């Protein structure tokens, strides 16, 4: 079976149909799927955030990505991204490491753009060589020199593995896993649990409800969506 088609089938199997739900922050997941939820909170000073565990080779993540960006920009809330490269995918780990290179060594905004472009061109990247060629073209287009060795000391790979470890502690089992989180410790799962829906469009009403629910909190500063490093 074609690897790309097989990956799409797996992603489809992991995405459960959307079940109608009220737009509200429910608190701890009722199905008990998620374990250590202590990290499900916005960055300091923010009332609400979108938390995403993603795999750059995941077709469902590629479909959700522009919706995440649109929702975050519309409501002026940050996106906190965790890399969760699935072992069945050929090049997703290397792509995550290079995104970290851009974030840490070049420009976080360029790292965001790299992730967006990888998702947009995902269907044409079938191997590590394809990813290397895509990345070289991306760097040239943005006036950057391609490093001879991206991660000589393994620090960036360690950051990606640390993100993956956070996902394991939370009990992430599929990608994308998406939450809307509040600064009062409440959250709602948009995608990724065992029993709920998987429609990223739910981000809009849930973020709206979360902002109303936290309206008495200190106002959040309006800012652009930024990539966040987790160690």
Automatic annotation (TrEMBL):
Keyword presence, Signal: yes
Organism, as annotated: Terriglobus aquaticus
Pfam families per UniProt: Thioredoxin_4
Keyword annotations: Signal
PROSITE patterns linked: THIOREDOXIN_2 (PS51352)
Extent of the signal sequence: 1-23
Name of the protein in question: DsbA family protein
InterPro entries: Thioredoxin-like_fold, Thioredoxin-like_sf, Thioredoxin_domain
Thioredoxin domain segment(s): 15-212
Keyword Manganese recorded: no
């Amino acid at each position: 079976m074609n690897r790309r088609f097989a990956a799409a089938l797996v992603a489809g199997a992991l995405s459960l149909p959307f079940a109608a739900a009220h737009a509200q922050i429910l608190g701890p997941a009722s199905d008990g799927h998620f374990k250590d939820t202590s990290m499900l909170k916005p960055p300091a000073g923010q009332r609400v955030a979108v938390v995403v565990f993603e795999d750059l080779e995941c077709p469902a993540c590629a479909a959700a990505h522009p919706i995440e960006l649109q929702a975050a920009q519309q409501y002026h809330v940050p996106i906190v991204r965790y890399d969760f490269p699935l072992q069945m995918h050929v090049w997703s780990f290397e792509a995550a490491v290079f995104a970290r290179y851009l974030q840490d060594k070049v420009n976080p905004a360029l790292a965001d753009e790299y992730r967006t472009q990888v998702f947009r061109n995902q269907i044409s990247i079938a191997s590590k060589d394809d990813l290397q060629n895509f990345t070289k073209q991306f760097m040239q287009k943005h006036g950057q020199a391609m490093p001879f060795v991206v991660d000589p000391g393994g620090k960036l790979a360690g950051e990606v593995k640390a993100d993956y470890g956070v996902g394991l502690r939370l009990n992430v089992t599929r990608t994308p896993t998406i939450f809307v989180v509040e600064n009062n410790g409440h959250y709602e799962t948009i995608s990724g649990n065992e029993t709920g829906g998987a429609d990223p469009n739910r981000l809009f009403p849930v973020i709206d409800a979360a902002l109303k629910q936290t309206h008495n909190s200190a106002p959040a500063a309006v800012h652009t969506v930024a990539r966040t490093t987790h160690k």
